[in-house]
Amino acid sequence: KIGPDPRNFNQRVSLGRNDLLIRTFLSLFTLHVIWPFLWIWATLYRPERGWGMQDAQRIDALNQRIIALENELARQKNLQKPDETGE
Predict the structure, then answer these.
(1) Is-contact 26 19, C-beta < 8 A?
(2) N or C: which end of the chain has fewer CB within 10 A?
(3) What is the pLDDT of residue 52?
(4) How far apart are the two ends of the chain, measured CA to CA in Å?
(5) What kind and span of H or E run contains 56?
(6) Helix, strand or coil for residue 50?
(7) Residues 19-34: pLDDT tens digits?
């Protein structure tokens, strides 16, 4: 046998068992702490409005304009109905 066994990581890097356990649990803990924030961040994006968290007033104003235009269109259609029937 020449040198350390390559399959035994602990022997290869000459770390103690406690060092490996600490590093393992720190990495697992970090992963479990970070992934919910990454998941929330990934689900906030909407293709139709982007991140959309800062433009709430603009979206409300646009919705009001759409409602006003729909009401105006409906009013104009109601005014044109008697003309179309010939009355």
Answers:
(1) no
(2) N
(3) 61
(4) 107
(5) helix 56-85
(6) strand
(7) 778 888 888 888 888 8
Separation in Å, CA 10 to CA 17, 37, 59, 84: 7, 33, 58, 89
CA dihedral 81, 82, 84, 87 (to 10 degrees): 160
Give the dihedral of Cα atoms 29, 31, 37, 41; nearest 10 deg: 180
10 neighbors 17 (Cβ within 8 angstroms): yes
Amino acid identity, position 78: N
Q: How far is CA 58 from the centre of its chain?
A: 21
**CA 60 vs CA 55, 66, 67: distances in Å:** 9, 10, 11
Q: Report residue 71 as tokens.
A: 């009401």
